[in-house]
Amino acid sequence: MQGRSAAPPDFDAAMFRSVLGQFATGVTIITTRAANGDLIGITASSFNSVSLTPPLVLWSLATQSGSMPVFQANSHYVINVLAASQVELCLRFASSKGNRFEGVPYHSTDSGIPIIDGALAWFECHNRSRYAEGDHVIFVGEVERCSLNENPEQTEPLVFHGGRFHTVNGLD
Predict the structure, then answer these.
(1) pLDDT score at 153
(2) Each residue of 2-11: pLDDT tens digit?
(3) pTM assigned to the model
(4) By CB atoms within 10 Å of each CB, which of 46, 60, 81, 107 scores lowest?
(5) Measured between alpha carbons, how far is 141 from 70 in angstroms, rounded to an integer?
């Protein structure tokens, strides 16, 4: 059936969001550095693996995001996988108010991109490709470096499901 278009949806945006909310996701903060040196970071739950060889991951960002021009132009970014204890950071980086990095402990990659201290894992990615789809841009990153948090007390991931934050071992 080549050439056939999708049928118009038989649901509204609110229903679509509710149905999507039934898929539990991890939570990340994507970070980069603007050309002027400013640190940029956003919360994203749209992270997924794509390929082991080459090592590829993806995430998406709303086309209307104020951070879009920086992420589109930059060659690299870091995906920080958040621990359950980092809900406050998640909320801070989801907000557009103030300096998101103020008081946030981090260290930088060799290219100067922030890695959030306490994250469960991180991936430093080359901004390999971008695809505009609907009201988002899908970013495919080729992973150049990655690491796990070595602290045995920081192993519980932050999970988002049904519009609320959870942990793997129980509900918040």
Answers:
(1) 67
(2) 668 888 889 8
(3) 0.90
(4) 107
(5) 15
